């Protein structure tokens, strides 16, 4: 949504809702880049750190260190950020309710999803959807 790029919301303490997460891929670790791509292509799946470490043929601790070094993010933080970006796009471009979006990105726990979403964007999922949905009537 182009308006988010140019908007300044004076009612907010933070501009976090406007941030667009693009995982850091300008690194030379091909195994970690492959894992990043897997996470981004499989946003609907429940993804475990152990599973990802196995895909990279690394022990969990070594994988977590390499991932953080390459991307600047902890593995779980990266997964959550990718999922929140997918949720934001869905809230902006569809009429799906919060439960549908949650399930679409692999969350079953409503409370956990709301906490992660608000921590990342500064808005609850409902606030975000109401503010940025392209299909909402003007003035809402």
Please describe what this structure looks like.
The chain has helices at residues 2-6, 30-41, 49-55, 60-71, 75-93, 98-104, 110-121, 125-132. The chain is mainly alpha-helical and 140 residues long. Helix 3 (49-55) crosses helix 4 (60-71) and helix 5 crosses helix 8 (125-132). The two termini are 17 Å apart.
Number of strands: 0
* Most strands sheet: none
Unreliable parts: 1-19
Shape: elongated
Number of contiguous helices: 8
Quaternary state reads single chain
Helix proportion: 55-70%
Structural class based on helices, strands and sheet pairing: mainly alpha
Mean pLDDT: 84
Task: Round the Cα radius of gyration to an integer and report it.
Answer: 16 Å
Keywords:
single chain; 140 residues; mainly alpha
């Amino acid at each position: 949504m182009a308006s988010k790029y140019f908007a300044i919301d004076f009612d907010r303490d933070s501009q976090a809702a406007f941030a667009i997460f693009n995982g850091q891929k300008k690194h030379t670790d091909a195994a970690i880049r492959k894992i990043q791509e897997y996470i981004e292509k499989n946003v609907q799946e429940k993804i475990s750190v152990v599973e990802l470490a196995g895909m990279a043929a690394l022990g969990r601790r070594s994988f977590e260190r390499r991932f953080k070094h390459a991307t600047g993010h902890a593995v779980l933080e990266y997964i959550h950020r990718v999922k929140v970006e997918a949720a934001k796009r869905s809230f902006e471009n569809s009429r799906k309710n919060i439960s549908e979006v949650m399930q679409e990105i692999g969350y079953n726990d409503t409370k956990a999803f709301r906490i992660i979403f608000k921590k990342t964007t500064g808005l609850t999922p409902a606030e975000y959807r109401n503010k940025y949905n392209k299909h909402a009537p003007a003035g809402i």
